[in-house]
Amino acid sequence: MRILLISGISGSGKSVALNVIEDAGFYCVDNLPPSLLVDLVNTLEWEGVKSAAMAIDSRSAHLLKIVPEAIERLRQLGHEVKVLFLTASSETLIARFSETRRSHPLSHLLQQQQLSSAPLSLVECIQKERELLEPLQFLGHVIDTSFLSANSLRQWIKDEIGVEQAPLILMFESFAFKVGVPLDVDFVFDVRILPNPHYDHALRPLTGKDQPVINFLDQQEMAQDLYRDIQSLIEKWLPEFKRDNRSYLTVGIGCTGGQHRSVYMVEKLAKYFQQNERVLIRHRQTNCG
User: Fold this and answer.
1) Which residues are annotated as a binding site for ATP?
2) Where GTP is bound, by residue (predicted)?
3) How far apart are CA 130 and CA 133, in angstroms?
4) How far are the Cα atoms of 33, 119, 192, 245 from residue 114, in angstroms, in the given order?
5) Which tens digit of pLDDT belongs to each residue from 156-188?
6) Residue 190 backbone class (left: φ over 0; alpha: ψ -120 to 50; beta: rest)
7) Binding site: which residues?
């Protein structure tokens, strides 16, 4: 089995790393007591799990000394074990805890485990945690996250475990402004300025996927100008969203009733981008797909 052990200083990004690893298909466990490590791996192997990741940190302070022995035992059993240790400068950690306003995990835990007689300050907690985790720091690859954004750390973790970035899914979604703008959209374009097929009695019962409506809007120079502008903007900025490790980019196209103009524009844009991108189409106010 492929096993990743994630450890490190609180506030250094262990949760970010574990989320990335979980998204990559690993079975993940946070705050695992080291005494359960070998038994858990045996159980997961029996259940057919091929890749697993466990976060072990200072919350198991009194058990950390058995981690090296547990790792050696797993390797003797034929498992591939890799350790990632995340750290950061004390100044960075203090700033991060100040931003989140969270207390350090050791502030009361050491008292509960009778390793300290009184609560510790944040600086004291950080120093004490470094001392507790020092034996683990040299078991694997150390990543200093002091000057890394969360997004950069995600990419570093993907590189560490050999995960390729999943292709971004570009979703085009039509909707009706009279119902409301969907909450899940990244871009919103208003096509209510275009001539409305609703006022043509022959076109009113149709949708933007029906050929008579398509023909009507294809003949509108304004519709073609707007289409090209939207297409150009998305095409220009799409690479930046990909570099930002986005999984989805949702483009909302709205008209009054969400039946004609918005559907037409969504279908036209989707057809163009389907040539090179993974595209999804959603129509909120119609049953046309």
Assistant:
1) 8-15
2) 57-60
3) 5
4) 17, 11, 68, 44
5) 888 888 876 668 899 999 999 999 998 889 999
6) beta
7) 8-15, 57-60
Partner residues linked to 29 by β-bridges: 54
Find the helix or strand (DSSP H, E) in which 6 lies.
strand 2-8
Radius of gyration over alpha carbons of the chain, in Å? 27
Name the H helices within the chain.
14-23, 37-46, 67-76, 90-100, 106-112, 122-137, 150-161, 211-218, 221-243, 261-273
| Spatial distance between the Cα atoms of 273 and 253, rounded to a whole number of angstroms | 15
CA 184 to chain centre: 15
What percent of the chain has pLDDT above 70? 93
Please list, in sequence order, all residues whose beta carbon lies within 8 angstroms of the beta carbon of residue 31, skipping any fewer than 6 positions away.
55, 56, 57, 59, 60
Separation CA 64–CA 116 (nearest Å): 17
**Which SS3 state, helix, strand or coil, does residue 102 take?**
coil
The pLDDT assigned to 243 comes to 82
Annotated binding site for GTP: 57-60
Question: With left for phi above 0 and alpha for psi between -120 and 50, is residue 152 left, alpha or beta?
Answer: alpha
Element spanning 29, H or E: strand 27-29
**Contact predicate 248/168, CB 8 Å:** yes
CB 143 within 8 A of CB 73: no
pLDDT tens digits for 84-138? Answer: 999 999 999 999 888 877 778 777 665 555 455 566 788 988 998 898 888 888 8
